[in-house]
């Protein structure tokens, strides 16, 4: 009985340690994933902003300045008529400006689209990781319930009417494990406390068994003596009968 209790205690302790390590690893993994995601988002945002700023700076540096803005006021007054652009020239200039601004808008849209696609991909990966972690957590909770039932069975054997809550979810799993560890400590204390009594009972039983064996041996010896006396008496009776 005591060996069975010690074996169950060792199994329960190993399962508790395994569950505790699994929970700790999951929390560390979630923290690492969050740090990696934040770092990646910051890097991508900085890279995209740098690319956009370089593109805008290159565009502004390549655009030619209007000649009539550089000339002095005297030249404008002297040659005012020749420097006023015609409607055709103004239309061509406006179209050129639109054509030059269009690649910038397309580049910004492309960068923004790439950013959105990357975020969507990372969200999908995080969703898959979350689903996997949820499944692992459900498995851990099921194992915790099984372990709690085993510990409750031991407590019922050793300490009657000692109840251990077996309701478990993602929020109170740690509390349930702590209670299970406390129950195991109580079982261990009771086992060590009563171990000497059990050993004493074993010695007493062995002593009584030896006494019974000696008594049986003595009875066998007495029985053999009685059988011999009986045989002698029967032989004597037979001789007496023959003489008569």
The largest β sheet comes out as: none
Coarse morphology: rod-shaped
Distance between the termini: 70 Å
Order of helices and strands: HHHHHH
Low-pLDDT residue spans: 63-87, 164-171
Task: Count the E strands.
Answer: 0
Total number of helical segments?
Answer: 6
Query: Mean pLDDT, nearest integer?
Result: 68
Report the radius of gyration as a whole number of Å: 48 Å
Strand content: under 5%
Helix content: over 70%
Structurally, the number of domains stands at 1
Q: Quickly give the structural class.
A: mainly alpha
| Assembly state (oligomeric) | single chain
GO molecular function: cytoskeletal anchor activity; dynactin binding; dynein complex binding
Region (Disordered): 55-102
Keywords: Coiled coil
Family: Belongs to the BicD family.
Describe this entry's structure for a reader.
The chain has one domain (2-196). The two termini are 70 Å apart. Helix 1 (2-62) packs antiparallel against helix 6 and helix 5 (87-158) runs parallel beside helix 6. The longest helix is centred in the middle third of the chain and has 72 residues, at 87-158. The protein is built from six helices and no strands. It is an all-alpha fold and 244 residues long. Residues 63-87 and 164-171 have low confidence and may be disordered. Belongs to the BicD family. Keywords: Coiled coil.
Quickly list its features.
single chain; 244 residues; mainly alpha; 89% helix; rod-shaped
């Amino acid at each position: 009985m005591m060996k069975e209790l010690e074996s169950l205690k060792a199994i329960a302790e190993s399962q508790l340690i395994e569950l505790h390590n699994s929970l700790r690893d999951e929390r560390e993994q979630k923290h690492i994933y969050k740090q990696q995601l934040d770092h990646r988002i910051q890097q991508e945002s900085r890279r995209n902003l740098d690319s956009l700023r370089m593109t805008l700076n290159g565009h502004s540096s390549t655009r030619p300045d209007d000649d009539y803005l550089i000339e002095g006021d005297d030249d404008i007054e002297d040659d005012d008529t020749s420097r006023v652009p015609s409607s055709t020239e103004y239309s061509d200039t406006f179209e050129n400006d639109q054509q030059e601004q269009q690649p910038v808008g397309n580049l910004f849209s492309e960068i923004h689209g790439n950013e959105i696609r990357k975020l969507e991909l990372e969200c999908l990966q995080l969703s898959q990781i979350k689903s996997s972690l949820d499944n692992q957590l459900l498995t851990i909770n099921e194992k915790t319930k099984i372990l709690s039932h085993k510990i409750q069975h031991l407590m019922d054997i050793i300490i009657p009417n000692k109840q251990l809550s077996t309701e478990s979810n993602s929020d109170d799993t740690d509390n349930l494990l702590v209670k299970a560890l406390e129950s195991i400590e109580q079982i261990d204390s009771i086992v060590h406390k009563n171990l000497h009594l059990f050993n004493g009972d074993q010695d007493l039983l062995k002593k009584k068994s030896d006494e019974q064996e000696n008594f049986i041996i003595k009875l066998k010896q007495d029985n053999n003596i009685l059988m011999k006396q009986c045989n002698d008496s029967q032989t004597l009776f037979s001789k007496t009968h023959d003489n008569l």
